[in-house]
Amino acid sequence: MQDFWFRLSIPLVFGTLFALLLWGMFSVTIALLFMLLALLTVMARHAWHLFKLLRWLQDARIETIPEAGGIWDEVFSRLYKMVKRHKQTKLELAAELQHLEQAAAALPEGVAILNDSNRIEWCNPLAQQHFDLDPERDFMQDITYLVRQPEFVEYLRGTNFSEPLAMRPARHDDMVLSIKLISYGENKRLMISRDITQLERIEAMRRDFVANVSHELRTPLTVVNGYVENLQDMPDLRQESARHALQLMAGQTQRMKNLVADLLTLSRLESDRSPLHEEIVDMELLLNEIYQDGQSLSGGAHVLQLELQSKAKLLGNREELRSAFGNLLSNAIRYTPQGGTILLRWVARDAQPVFAVQDSGIGILPQHIPRLTERFYRVDRSRSRETGGTGLGLAIVKHIAIRHQAKLEISSEEGKGSTFMLVFPGKRAITGVTPAA
Ligand code: ADP
C-alpha cells in the first residue's frame, strides 16, 4: 500500500516542484496555469485507463488485459494475477467434475439426481440407457412424464423407500430393473437403478425347478402312498413289526404329500403367470366353513369361537383366502395345548377389514417373529413335525397377503398365546353388495 501512495504522489510532487520553480522564475499565474495543465493531464490519463478497464471488464479474458504504466500497471498486473488464479481454479474444478462424472459413468448402476418435484437434474449414462433418457432433451423434465408405469409413479409419490421397486421399463420389457430412491440434502433424491434381469431369470428358474420337482414327485408319492395304505388294510398282515413299519411309512409318505402340495401352492402363488382372480367373497359363509374345518381338526380339544363384528364382504380370491385363513387357524390349533381357546374374528379397524386368529397357546419369543414367514423356519422343529407341519404355512399366508395388498401382523407372548392378523386395504371391503354367484 505504501508503494501505491508513493507511486500516486510522484507526478504531483514533481509537478508542484516545477510549478514552484516557475513561480520563482516567472510569476504565480504561470505557475498556477502549469499546475492546472498538469492536473488535467493526470486526470485525463486516469480517465483513459479507467475507460480501458471498463472496456476490458465487458469480456474479461486473460489474453486481452490492457497494458499501462505507473499506478495502473499495478492495478492491471493484480487483475491479471486474479484472473489467472480464477482460471486455474476453474480448470481444477472442471477436472474434478470430469473425474466425478467418469466415476459415475463407470458405476455398474444407473444414477439420477431428482429435485423435490421429481425433475431430472443429472443422470449417468446407465440411467439414460435404463429409462431411455436424453441428458439434454430431458434435463429438468419431470421423470414421471418420461417413465409412466403406474407402479413407478406410485413408488415415487410414496414416502417409504426401504424396499426397492422391481419394474420392467416400457421400451425394454425383457429387462427387469430394481429401483431405489435415497433422500439427501435439501429435498434432493438419488435414484439408483440396477439391472436385475439375470437375477430374476435365475430366480424364475429356481421357482420353475421347485415347481417341476414337486410336480414330478406327486405321482410316484401318490402311488407309493396308495400301496402302503392297501398293505395296511390287508387282513392277513399279522406280524406286529410289519404293521408298525407300514404305519411309519404311511406317516412319512403323508408328510411328503403335504410338503409337495404346499410347495406347489407356493410356486403357483409366486409365479408371475398366475394373476389374482378376484370376486366378492361372502366372509360370513367362508369363515363359517373355516370354523367347521377348525372344529373337526381340533376334535373337540379346544374351545373355538367365531366373532363376526363386521358385515363387510371382501374383494379377493376365495380359494386363496380360504387357504390363508385355514393355515392361520390350523397353526393356532396345532400350537395350542388341549383345553385352550381360539378366537376367530372378522372386524373393521380404521376402515380396514381385519381377519384375526387369537389363541391361548404356547406363544413365540419376540426374536423369532420377524422370521416366521421364511420358508421352513420353525421355532420348534420337532413340534412342527409332530403336528404335521411343513414349515411353509406362513410363507403361503404371506404370499397370499401380498397378492391382496394385505399386511400380516403378528403379536405374541411366550406361554400366553399369539394373535395373527391379516389387515386388508380399505378399498377391498365391500359393504351392501350381493356376492357374485
Ligand atoms: P409349520 O408348518 O411348522 O407350522 P408355519 O410356516 O405355519 O410352519 O409356521 C412357522 C412357525 O411359526 C411354526 O413352526 C411355529 O414355530 C410358529 N408358529 C406359527 N403359528 C403359531 C402359533 N399360533 N403359535 C405359536 N407358534 C406358531
Task: Quickly describe the structure.
This protein has twelve helices and 13 strands. By secondary structure, the protein is α+β, with helices and mostly antiparallel strands.
Number of strands: 13
**Ligand kinds:** adenosine-5'-diphosphate
Structural class: alpha+beta
Q: Which fold name is given in CATH as the topology of the largest domain?
A: Heat Shock Protein 90
CATH superfamily of the largest domain: Histidine kinase-like ATPase, C-terminal domain
The CATH architecture assignment of the largest domain turns out to be: 2-Layer Sandwich
Any overview of this molecule?
With 437 residues, the chain is an alpha+beta fold. Helix content is 52%, strand content 17%. It has 12 helices and 13 strands. α1 packs antiparallel against α2, α9 (283-298) runs parallel beside α10 (318-334) and α10 runs antiparallel to α12. It is rod-shaped. Adenosine-5'-diphosphate binds next to α10 and α12.
